[in-house]
Write a structure and sequence with these properties.
The chain is an alpha/beta fold. A 6-stranded parallel beta sheet has the order 3-2-1-4-5-6, sandwiched between helices. The longest helix has 29 residues. It binds NADP nicotinamide-adenine-dinucleotide phosphate.
Length: 173
């Protein structure tokens, strides 16, 4: 039976490349992005479904999760949406630093939380999150980005204990 991967931030970069790779390898792909109406490439593949998702929008996370699960079984959730905020700390506004954590950290947490009940019920499933070397060491002028990626590492490691116990995997790449 075909497997299915759900991807966040599939409009560009690693997310889009992942959608294409899995599609080419015969998986069903649910490629989510903020503006699916602008997508001109992934929409051409019969095994790729586009759904709208801004990972900072909790209501949309809930709606899109339900829409994705209504399509069929999901095996892998790839939390990939994110961006890097660069700059010396005193030049960064409060709004910018909160937005960085809302996207890179809470976006991942909230999408994962939305899928856990489904994976728990079937006692299988895998969460993968795009981490960074900036989640393992600190770099200059990226303190908030690095903090968001360090947070992902600690959160994933802690969560692995409660998820692995019920057959669910969680990884950072
Ligand atoms: N490229 C690298 O060298 C590198 C290294 C380490 C880690 N990473 C990580 O890899 C991930 C993907 O980055 P990339 O390099 O592929 O960058 P990218 O080409 O800029 O792609 C980022 C993706 O995230 C999406 N995104 C941003 N904010 C979002 C939000 N609020 N809701 C939903 N989607 C959102 C973007 O969507 P829009 O098109 O709507 O903006 C885009 O699809 C990120 O988590 C990044 O931190 C990248």
């Amino acid at each position: 039976m075909k497997k299915t991967i759900f991807i966040t931030g599939a409009s560009a970069g690693i997310g889009k490349a992942t959608a294409k790779l899995f599609s080419e390898r015969g998986w069903n792909v649910i490629a989510t992005m903020r503006k699916p109406e602008n997508e001109t490439e992934l929409n051409l593949s019969s095994n790729i479904t586009l759904l709208p998702l801004d990972v900072t929008n909790l209501n949309q996370i809930k709606e899109t999760t339900q829409r994705a699960l209504a399509i069929g079984d999901i095996d892998v959730v790839f939390n990939n949406a994110g961006y890097a905020l660069f700059g010396i700390l005193e030049a960064i506004t409060d709004e910018q630093m909160v937005a960085q954590m809302e996207t890179n950290f809470f976006g991942v947490v909230r999408v994962t939380q939305a899928f856990i009940p489904y994976f728990r019920e079937k006692r299988s499933g895998l969460f993968i999150t795009t981490g960074s070397s900036a989640g393992l060491m600190g770099f200059p002028v990226s303190s908030m980005y690095d903090a968001s990626k360090w947070a992902i590492e600690g959160w994933s490691e802690s969560l692995s204990y409660e998820l692995n116990a019920v057959g669910i995997g969680i990884k950072t790449i």
